[in-house]
Amino acid sequence: MLLSTALLGSTALLVSAEETPAAVRARAGRLGTVPAALLILSATDLDDALAAIEEHRPSLVVLDSIQTLRAAGAPGTAGSLAQVRAVVEQLGEAARSSGRPSWSSGTSRKRATRPGRAPWSTWSTPSSPSRATGTTGSASRGP
């Protein structure tokens, strides 16, 4: 999706806390030409990611992985519940203030508290600016 967005001429930003930009570019290069519109930032600090989003105003942002980002001022270590909540909240606020939709997703590994439940859980949080109220709501189609 990132590569497709960049190939169509729109700016796409990958914020990766787990791989270097060189490693990501090498992997993308195996799929073909890596367009200049594909921006890659290696960061674990949310403020760095938000600054890049503000500076480049990409059409698409992917954070790999959201649980590796750390929000200044929030308690706990990266990946803790308080940190993930703070990161999602600040990313949602950035989306609302820019008028662009966002979709946060992640995977957490917790001990199953009930028999039969998987120890891995995947979650996602859609966020889009509501034209009528300026509040957060589910993404929808239409004018």
Characterization of the model:
The chain is an alpha/beta fold. It has one domain (2-109, 120-136). 31% of the residues lie in helices and 24% in strands. It is built from four helices and six strands, in the order αβαβαβαβββ. It has helices spanning 2-7, 21-29, 46-56, 81-98, and strands at residues 12-16, 38-42, 60-64, 102-109, 120-129, 136-137. The strands form two sheets. The chain has a three-stranded parallel sheet, sandwiched between helices. The protein has a three-stranded antiparallel sheet with strand order 4-5-6, covered by helices on one side. The longest helix has 18 residues, at 81-98. The radius of gyration is 16 Å and the shape is globular.
Largest sheet: 3 strands, parallel
Give helix % range.
Answer: 25-40%
Provide mean pLDDT, rounded: 78
| Helix-and-strand structural type | alpha/beta
Task: For the structure shown, list the relevant keywords.
three-stranded antiparallel sheet; 6 strands
Sequence-ordered SSE layout with sheet pairings:
Layout: H1 2-7, E1 12-16, H2 21-29, E2 38-42, H3 46-56, E3 60-64, H4 81-98, E4 102-109, E5 120-129, E6 136-137
Parallel strand pairs: 1-2, 1-3
Antiparallel strand pairs: 4-5, 5-6
